[in-house]
Amino acid sequence: MKVKVGIIGGSGYTGLELLRILRQHPSAEVHVMTSRALEGKKLYDVFPNMHGISNLTYLLPDDDKLYECDIVFFATPHGVAMNNAGLFLERNIKVVDLGADFRINDSKIWSNWYNMEHTEESLLNEAVYGQPEIYRETIKEARLIANPGCYPTAVLLALKPLLEKNLIDPSNIIADCKSGASGAGRNANQATLLCEITESFKPYGVSGHRHFPEIKQELESISECPVGLTFTPHLLPMSRGIEATIYADLVDSKADILACFENAYKNEEFVKILPEGVYPETRSVKSSNYCQISVQYVEHSNKLVIMSVIDNLGKGAAGQAIQNMNLMFGLNEQEGLLQMGLLP
Amino acid sequence: MKVKVGIIGGSGYTGLELLRILRQHPSAEVHVMTSRALEGKKLYDVFPNMHGISNLTYLLPDDDKLYECDIVFFATPHGVAMNNAGLFLERNIKVVDLGADFRINDSKIWSNWYNMEHTEESLLNEAVYGQPEIYRETIKEARLIANPGCYPTAVLLALKPLLEKNLIDPSNIIADCKSGASGAGRNANQATLLCEITESFKPYGVSGHRHFPEIKQELESISECPVGLTFTPHLLPMSRGIEATIYADLVDSKADILACFENAYKNEEFVKILPEGVYPETRSVKSSNYCQISVQYVEHSNKLVIMSVIDNLGKGAAGQAIQNMNLMFGLNEQEGLLQMGLLP
Amino acid sequence: MKVKVGIIGGSGYTGLELLRILRQHPSAEVHVMTSRALEGKKLYDVFPNMHGISNLTYLLPDDDKLYECDIVFFATPHGVAMNNAGLFLERNIKVVDLGADFRINDSKIWSNWYNMEHTEESLLNEAVYGQPEIYRETIKEARLIANPGCYPTAVLLALKPLLEKNLIDPSNIIADCKSGASGAGRNANQATLLCEITESFKPYGVSGHRHFPEIKQELESISECPVGLTFTPHLLPMSRGIEATIYADLVDSKADILACFENAYKNEEFVKILPEGVYPETRSVKSSNYCQISVQYVEHSNKLVIMSVIDNLGKGAAGQAIQNMNLMFGLNEQEGLLQMGLLP
Amino acid sequence: MKVKVGIIGGSGYTGLELLRILRQHPSAEVHVMTSRALEGKKLYDVFPNMHGISNLTYLLPDDDKLYECDIVFFATPHGVAMNNAGLFLERNIKVVDLGADFRINDSKIWSNWYNMEHTEESLLNEAVYGQPEIYRETIKEARLIANPGCYPTAVLLALKPLLEKNLIDPSNIIADCKSGASGAGRNANQATLLCEITESFKPYGVSGHRHFPEIKQELESISECPVGLTFTPHLLPMSRGIEATIYADLVDSKADILACFENAYKNEEFVKILPEGVYPETRSVKSSNYCQISVQYVEHSNKLVIMSVIDNLGKGAAGQAIQNMNLMFGLNEQEGLLQMGLLP
Asked: Which domains does chain C have, with CATH numbers?
């Protein structure tokens, strides 16, 4: 018996990536796909790679067929999951929100960054932050998962081993991050036209980005002390991939940082620590659920540089969501997720 | 018991794509990977997506370990498979040549286009052209497969239904084809530097390209008459994908061409015929073994336009090679090959 | 005294390209820029390359300041120039329409393709098709120019020498054309998001494209007989550039085609004929007003292949418009237009 | 009388960019172009945008025709200019080295980073670092210019106003820099094939890059004290453009940083300071000699973020070289350099 999956908000890249991964998943299958705007259309009318592959039709997001599912994924803008997750939970249907509604524990902080009241404090308290490498055991018991943001995933995996061992100064961390354009979604938008971003590169959201409070919250949860974080996102002229270059001050310049990382992730299939002097490339994890991390101590300035790459739609969204689903249903955590990066 | 696979010439994109697909194949596994230039190196030293994924080491191409395989794939420049295939066949090891050595039946024509004597006429006679949609039954019995070229695969699938039903004039066929740069391989080459081809587009080989005699031979084999073909390849500023736009004169302008294609491929998983007015995009089949085909009759000029897309490394090389392997070993033809196109 | 230029519809890529070229023009200057949507904004608020370069503010398209100009360029969707050109002409202000309103001589054909009545038959009769290599002398006397479409420019320059010398069969011409995404404009549009078109290639408008009747009209004007044309546009994963690969049947296979082209264009600065065996690349003309053309006779199929490249925003739009302006004002035709292609 | 220019090492992108800019320069012209490897070839055989534009032939680098020049540009690998600059200086021919031979004042530091003895200490002492915004008056009198590296140009312009006013802590500066692939040159190289870097992003040289000592030297020259610098270069999947995101600690968080930058560069044509909240994009300066800079104070972490963009071949190489030439010959500093960024 396969896990029956519903995808709410299936018109974007995250919804499509869920479909793509689940097609290869031996123990789960997509049962319903919804989209208010695309109701009645076939998947292949929207995503041309689906011709002859799937005959599914988009339903409305209030279609009863969703209640036949074992789990629903919200691939929706913020505000949607918050107001609808309860309908599924009360029917014993598990929920993974790939949006931001349940990521920030403090509803006031959330409201400040997302310009909206948080209407579901109790669900917020129940939701588990879905980073398996940090919260695996809690995820297994959860009904409601807040799937992490893409930038936070790359940054948290890069800093967790250091902060939990108190190897760096938590007050001065810089995360210079770069993302492909698929992170900006699939809506018609002048700013993400090919002609506006190909052959160009730019920072954005420098004064403040919604992933900042999320990263800060989780870093402080690991370090158990306040964290001073500067986070700068940039837009890459490509579709998939995130790279984070992180700068930190080592507490003890003689610590064996590489060993620390290798040890921290030795049982984690989806986090690969690179050999000394080898730096990660986003292509290495494209279309996959993998994260690659490299560390470099820069002697002349006494800085530690940690570099981390993920696919923002893979480990940064749909891949991690399915990893969470596997855990929630007692499946093998790696099921459906072992494809390696697509190169070239 | 999994089929043991050897890959000879594993330093390029085709070898890597074989590795990537076989990682997902339930009934086959890579046993040996060879490269004269990379001997002793780990796969992950060469392909950064392999860190923590494979611990294989490149061996020399004459390593005895190859003889433990059930099948070897030659992913080598022309001339290599010709001289070495016999060593495997005589040990009852099957051979698929992803190069050009056994594609042209007439050794003189081959020599003219490849500037080299053909030294293995008997193997040439035995080799089967590995296009399953044309030669499926023969492939099942074959020991030695000439895996088709990338352009030929796109063009043959687009023309087969028309030529075998005598629906077009065979004397005036134009194939205007476009390929991503991965078709040019992974060797250091000024002409395929990013800075030389990004944001640009060009024709090449207009006066003659080695895939011309291969396409012509197979078209004439289908039509059983001489074919007048003009074939123009172009280079796209991207890595993966081939599109062929083919122009032909309809014999009977009232023929139901779409029905003809749908009928011809109704049992073929890997060839999808698009609805009327929908044209194929290379991204729809990226990283997959699928081909998408569309037909459009242009009334004002009485031309039939057939458009076909494949991934040159997938259905145009490694995917098709594994499809052939599946047939040769009596496996399910689709095993390991059902991933859909990666989009975006 | 510099020619005072007004640009109507300055929010798109064509308007910006006019600005960019005119900045280098010694005898003309931009006096007014209008945009209904951007009224009151500074140019640099819209185009970030203008910071510190221009202090111009967008005005409304009915601002009286336009009447101070010597010439206005319409860089607007079809329908706009038609209804407004007269206002300028009656004030002795010259007009160049970079849109389609005056390109098709027959208003019924125009209406069929553009789904709109043509309201200005008399202006249509007066308008001159602004291809200087064909209509130079008439352009010099014109008040109203229909600036050619981008595809038509590439195709006409490639076929003019052949048709005027009756060297090819006019009944069977195929133009397989490819364009960068800037041809689709700067409006927010899902179909031209980077993630939808990068690393992909596709045909579009195969059953009919608005440049078809324009090309056909001009080819028939040159050949003075009916022309059988098949025209297939494709979208390239890049921003600037058009390539046309054109197939024709030679009337006399012994004609010296290369000499014919060299002779036809020996006095044309902006059309360069390439040596035998050298094929054009779109990058060679990027950001310039040049067109490069190559011819190749394919003996085995008796086809002539003509290949032509332009920058769709340069010779295919703004560059050619300024070339027309130069002619209309008795300036040196090449003024401001001699920049060579930007490579890499 | 135009300045006669010789270009030594004209086979790469920097040499080509010199040619492209000088074609528009009213007071200088290219007299000789040399390349050992390309001797006897026409420029248009190597750079396809030159067909019909230039009839120059590559000469050998020891051709006497070089001695007819007023100035020679070395666009050569390090080590070449060092050994040959003297030949020109002694003939009263000025020299601009676009390579690295004269950038580092201390020959021992140079030798450590470039793995080569420095053979010309006296020329090293004479050479002027060619950053006009810092050393304009000295450049005017110089015979020998060390044209700055691309990364240094972007970083120095971003930090000069802060260091000379002592507004930041010089001991903790981080420069996270990103460059297009043209910075890696035009030699055949597997690592810069399109298929290796398109749709990917990676850090490189993290443990040490040759531009590090150059940046450090110049920062310390401005600040007149030791500087603690961490410099991380990254490779962008595009051809042209550098972005530097720089992190520094403000000494006085109430300082008006934007005013400081506006004031520092108010008379500099080629450095544009962006309004508050507007961040630079590399496309804004593509193909130009401009630099755009933005500053953002991040309150929650008390960091100052300075962002700077240039075209690595323009202001980062050939454009700046010609700016230096203009100064050395008493020409208008801006001649030939006022083209704005090419967008899209």
From this structure: 3-148+315-328 (3.40.50.720), 151-312 (3.30.360.10)
